[in-house]
Design brief:
Number of strands: 2
Low-confidence stretches: none
Distance between the termini: 54 Å
Number of helices: 15
Mean pLDDT: 92
Radius of gyration: 21 Å
Shape: globular
Length: 303
């Protein structure tokens, strides 16, 4: 498919170009495509595929080998499922639909069964402290915004336009702020700020506004994609990656919110509903929030 990729392209480039071409996708998903294709390239080097393998001619044995390697690397089942979904996406772009959907069906190709119960825990205290002590000012502000408001990484990078609104709300002694920029599906949500954290958040917002006044935006870059990449790399240098990724900071926020609601008298069900709303998942996903944001940390603490 010369119209999609060149024969001389690296394997990761061939698969990425095809995955992009199969249908439209958002910035976050494009980053997942890049990560998956880089992982495929690593395995191709280990397995000595050469550079001729592409979505046009990759074999079931080659894909099965990649999956087995990811399993031995200790990668979570859900992650492997997501990676296989991206590989199938690339296969469909070169008209290998039957191969993608039948031959490469998860059960047939050896993809391990996944669970909706997450294994991710809150960020390790020592990792977070080290990051806060050593981060550059703009990176530090985004870490603190995630910690205090429970923002996704994209929401944190896009937070600049909302800072003055948040400052105004907190200045009027309102206990909630509105998150609208960079949200999933453009869904606006209201986030409850614990009273004992209001002053800290006010200070963080003020520091963020100073950074914007100095450099024009929270992350200096030519576009949102490069801003996300730059911030992600800055976090990785601070060891905020893998099981201690930026999403583990969001889990810390969820864990703290849940415990706060319990402390002020809510039962477990209502505490989860309130926490789910703060995260932007809505009233009906309390159990899902517990399984994916809170459960693993509680189980670790309880031995």
């Amino acid at each position: 498919m010369s119209e999609i990729f060149l024969p001389s392209d690296a394997i990761k480039v061939k698969f990425a170009k095809c995955a992009y071409a199969e249908s439209r996708c958002g910035t976050n998903y494009k980053l997942k495509i890049q990560t998956t294709c880089c992982n495929l390239q690593k395995w191709a080097k280990i397995a000595r595929w050469g550079n001729l393998v592409s979505p046009i001619n990759i074999t079931p044995n080659q894909i099965h080998g990649f999956i087995n390697w990811r399993i031995t690397e200790g990668v979570q089942n859900r992650t492997i499922q997501n990676e296989m979904s991206i590989i199938r996406r690339a296969l469909r772009a070169v008209n290998r639909d039957d191969f993608a959907d039948v031959v490469c069906h998860n059960k047939k190709i050896g993809v391990p069964a996944g669970s909706r119960i997450g294994v991710g825990k809150i960020i390790e205290e020592i990792i977070l402290k080290n990051a806060i002590d050593n981060a550059n000012p703009d990176t530090l502000i985004l870490i603190k915004l995630q910690q205090l408001i429970g923002l996704r990484i994209k929401e944190a990078v896009c937070a600049g336009d909302s800072l003055k609104d948040w400052q105004r709300s907190l200045g009027l002694d309102q206990q909630s702020i509105t998150v609208r920029d960079g949200t999933k599906g453009g869904r606006v949500r209201s986030v409850f700020i614990q009273p004992n954290r209001t002053e800290e958040l006010k200070q963080v917002i003020q520091e963020a506004l100073i950074i914007i006044k100095k450099q024009g935006r929270l992350v200096v870059s030519k576009n949102l994609k490069s801003a996300l990449t730059r911030h992600s790399l800055a976090l990785a240098k601070l060891e905020i990656k893998h099981e201690n990724s930026s999403h583990s900071i969001r889990r810390l926020f969820a864990f703290n919110q849940y415990n706060y609601y319990l402390q002020i008298g809510y039962d477990k069900k209502m505490a989860l509903i309130r926490t789910s709303n703060d995260l932007g998942h809505g009233n009906s996903r309390g159990r899902w929030v517990f399984n994916n944001y809170i459960r693993a940390t509680l189980e670790a603490q309880n031995g």
